[in-house]
Amino acid sequence: MSSQALPRGAPQHGALTTRRDAVRNYHRILDAAREVLGESGAEACMEEIAARAGVGIGTVYRRFASKDALIDELLQLALEQVLASTERALARTDGYGLEELLRALGQSFADHARYASLLLQRRTEDTTARRIRAAVNELAARAITAGTVNSGTTSGDVMALIWAMRGLVQATGEVAPGTWQRFLDIHLAGMRAAGPLSSAFPNGPDPL
Q1: Helix 67-91 to helix 97-111 angle, to the nearest 10 degrees?
Q2: Model pTM greater than 0.85?
Q3: Which of 145, 157, 162 is nearest to 101 (CA)?
Q4: Which terminus, N or C, of the chain has the lesser number of Cβ atoms within 10 Å?
Q5: Using one digit for the tens of pLDDT, what is the confidence trace for 166-205?
Q6: Domains plus CATH for the chain?
Q7: What's the 3-state SS for the chain?
């Protein structure tokens, strides 16, 4: 019986090891890609990514058919993280979901700042963009109802803040990577302050 069990078990163990190796290599390639793309931008080459990851070039191409496919994967992973953060923010009922989402977006911008220009060149699915905009609208409305932001705040104000925060992260880069946090703190303090707001700004996010 034991002589028959061993051959059956060996391939299973080998398959498990292979899967673990594949997962490890996948994450190594992604980490290396983030480094190399951050350093070289569009000029980054797959050979350098493979070398940085400590794997053969064939391993990279078996997982990603091209550099574009690798960048698409990085974008998809970034969007999945943002959407997960969006769902967590929407799950809150205390009026602070908007702040949580803004901080998550700021962190995402910072995490991918070194190669953000490459990600921004890719087309994002309309459903993803609509989901995030809808969440901003919903969370802004909840914050107003809960009194955690000025009642005159609009979703357009929030979208403007998001765009400004992203621009700041791209402008400061590695020189001052935490600047966006102070910037957001200041704007959140302003959004919480009572008092009339200028009517010159659009009422909704569409113009942005």
Answers
A1: 160
A2: no
A3: 162
A4: N
A5: 999 988 877 777 899 999 999 999 999 887 776 665 544 4
A6: 1-64 (1.10.10.60), 68-208 (1.10.357)
A7: CHHHHHHHHHHHHHHHHHHHHHHHHHHHHHHHHHHHHHHHHHHCCHHHHHHHHCCCHHHHHHHCCCHHHHHHHHHHHHHHHHHHHHHHHHHCCCCCHHHHHHHHHHHHHHHCHHHHHHHHCCCCCHHHHHHHHHHHHHHHHHHHHHCCCCCCCCHHHHHHHHHHHHHHHHHHCCCCCCHHHHHHHHHHHHHHCCCCCCCCCCCCCCCC
Separation between Cα atoms, residue 82 and residue 70, nearest integer Å = 19
**Helix/strand/coil (H, E, C) string of 87-118?**
HHHHHCCCCCHHHHHHHHHHHHHHHCHHHHHH
Neighbour tally for 122: CB within 10 Å: 13
